[in-house]
Predict the 3D structure of the following.
Amino acid sequence: MEKGTIKVGDAADLKVLIRERNATARNHTATHLLQSALRQVVGDHVKQAGSLVTADRLRFDFTHFSAMTADELRRVENIVNGYIMDNSDVSSVEMAAAEAMQSGATALFGEKYGDRVRVVRVGEVSSELCGGTHVRAAGDIGLFKIVSEAGIAAGVRRIEAVTGSGAIEYVQQLEDEQKHLATLVKAEGGGVIDRVERLLARQKELQREVEELQSRLNASKSADLLAGVRESNGIKILATRVETEDPKGLRDLSDSLKDRLQSGVIVLGCAAAGKANLLVAVTKDLTDRCKAGDIIKSLAPIIGGSGGGKPELAQAGGTKPENLDEALEAAYKIIG
Ligand SMILES: [Zn+2]
């Protein structure tokens, strides 16, 4: 209403938005066909638990206890499209509610119906109590495409689907994506999957190479770092800052240092983007004299964090990278 008022008895000129209405009718009749197909594929226990029909799509909620498999969804889609191609007439008749129930028409459980009801039939495949708008023959739906299936509550699944021009648009969108993907991986002539598989294999290979180079780099770095070893009460201690971005890098480096040191305590620290990480490693022979977990508990507060771990390995993260050198220096005093 843009202006004025409407009251009972006024004469009005009714104009239906015919494209929207036809699109809605396609989705609605398709919803009935979907229910019939679901009963065939997943079983008679399927009951409608909600439904939404708009011009753009349809949504159908139903009782079922497990996710549908890709194969079941494909079968449902094929059955519905088979009905569409059979092009059965869609008819609606009004009759007494009792008569409708006796005829086996699908009704909503728990719904209150009046004495007279409208039954919508699609050929021999669907018969439902329904007051909605429908196509004249199943073939009007054009194409039916399921776009998603998901659980929305315990024992309730939801299928969303598109029909007619909405389904064609959906397929075209998939085609566009596929073409884009083919261009990205330079497989315009076909064989996209093959190409992607090869790229993934190559990436794995490169990852392995990077890791190998990283560990070689660690080995040479650790040789340099060992110059910083100090000895206190017979324990070799190395506390140093390293250029590594992540905790895994610290672990790899400490493993290589432990191998070279044979016996000792290693404290490594790194700082990046407002964060500091510390790692303490103690060789097995020394864990009865000092434990990595205890050492890290003393050091972590200095870098504004907390941490813990096992006797041989412990790690901590903190928010004060500016105190990292202080924490490393403190390590020499705590140990030994
Ligand atoms: Zn209906």
Residues 28, 32, 128, 130, 132 surround zinc ion (CB under 6 Å). The radius of gyration is 35 Å.
